[in-house]
Design a protein that fits this description.
By secondary structure, the chain is mainly alpha-helical. Among the domains are: 1-46, no CATH class; 62-105, no CATH class. Helices cover 47% and strands 6% of the residues. The protein is built from four helices and two strands, in the order αααββα. It has a two-stranded antiparallel ribbon. The protein starts with a helix and ends in a 25-residue tail after the last helix. The mean pLDDT is 91.
Length: 145
């Protein structure tokens, strides 16, 4: 292994253990495992009579809204590119140019339609087969006024 890589890994490990020793969560980093950890730690919400004051977070919240808007624009641009390439391919499965290869293959997926099943067999109890998941919805809305 590369000596520089090993040294960087050891430094990261040392930093990580400092957080454990201090019983302090590491700083947020924007990566999915951190989101998963936060969602697990704070899985259940409690009803507060007054909102938590997020003093000093105004610019961060404005940036969040701006990023969401930029992502929508980028998603629309990405979708338009995909549509153009699909129009080029039409019914063909493969396309290529210079260093790119494109595949748009037909696939089939079978899924169970519980509504139709219960219409055909109303005596069937499907409740043991439903999976319930609990999550907290996160949203930010700018207040006017």
């Amino acid at each position: 292994m590369d000596r520089i890589f090993i040294e960087a890994l050891m430094a990261a490990e040392k930093e990580f253990w400092q957080f454990i020793d201090a019983d302090t969560p590491p700083p947020v980093d924007g990566f999915k495992p951190t989101t998963d950890a936060i969602n697990t730690i704070y899985a259940e919400s409690i009803t507060e009579s007054t909102p938590v004051e997020l003093f000093g977070r105004e610019n961060m919240l404005k940036r969040y809204i701006a990023l969401k808007d930029e992502i929508k624009v980028l998603e629309t641009e990405k979708e338009a590119i995909e549509q153009t390439i699909k129009e080029d391919l039409q019914k063909n499965e493969y396309g290529a140019c210079s260093s790119f290869e494109v595949k748009w293959k037909s696939q089939t997926r079978n899924t169970l339609d519980p509504k139709a099943l219960l219409e055909d067999m109303p005596e069937l109890d499907l409740s043991p087969y439903y999976k319930t998941s609990t999550f907290r919805r996160f949203s930010i809305k700018e207040r006017m006024g």
